[in-house]
# Entry
Amino acid sequence: MLDRIAIKGLRARGHHGVFPRERELGQTFVVDVVLGLDTRPAASGDDLEATAHYGVIAEEVVGIVTGDPVDLIETLAQRIADQCLTHAAVQEVEVVVHKPDAPITVPFDDVTITIVRSRG
# Structure
């Protein structure tokens, strides 16, 4: 079983969506990532290089949200997962992308996509 490092509530403004207004004006996206890894090597040696540097990963996630626009939050979540898995210690990642300002015509709290990806 893998250990977990969670980064919750990363907020960034992106221009993702299928409607022109979403692309032009942008909106806030909120991202949660849960990294699955074995933290024992880092803990035994007190070694940052043996774990996932969550500060760096947080910056990368925000860079993806603020970067090149995509139509679907599914695509955005996949890009984030792919980036997280480039870190050697990360074996699995769960990504939740929240789109609280989605263009829906009825009252709602949030729209999310949750994906889980692993090496292999």
Remarks:
- The radius of gyration is 15 Å.
- The longest strand covers residues 3-14.
